[in-house]
Amino acid sequence: MTIPAVQAAAIGDTVVMHVSVKNFSSVTGIGLNINYDPAVATFAGIANTYAGVSFGVNSATSGVVKMAWVDLTGSASVSISSGVLVDLKFKIQGWQWSGRIHYI
Predict the structure, then answer these.
(1) For residue 83, what are the contacts with CB-CB under 8 A and spacing of at least 6?
(2) Which residues contact 61 (CB under 8 A, 6 or more apart)?
(3) Which class in CATH covers the domain with range 14-103?
């Protein structure tokens, strides 16, 4: 999984970060914890989710976005050879935006 850095952003801008994956084969569950600096950005939501994946998102904790999806039916696994899984949107509110988002 990769999340490329944003090259430039001004205060008030909303930046979109593409979460890209490779070699996903018959994936039936995904869990992500995305950490960011809340002094610099606020989480503004997700967009362009891969077809068939509907993430549950919990962004109640400032600085952490928790996302999960599970195929409860056993018949809706996801296979992505290479592409964008989901876009993350952040609104810039501070001046030290490095474009770095950490994920586990």
Answers:
(1) 20, 21, 50
(2) none
(3) mainly beta
Q: Global pTM?
A: 0.83
Residue 44 region by backbone torsions, left for phi larger than 0, else alpha for psi between -120 and 50, else beta: alpha
How is residue 69 written in tokens?
Answer: 């999806």
Q: What is the pLDDT of residues 27-74, one digit of tens each?
A: 999 999 998 889 888 999 999 999 889 999 998 788 999 999 999 888
Write down the domain spans for the chain: 14-103
Which one, of 48, 49, 68, lies nearest residue 59 by Cα?
A: 68
Asked if 43 contacts 65 with a C-beta cutoff of 8 angstroms, the reply is yes
Size (the chain), residues: 104
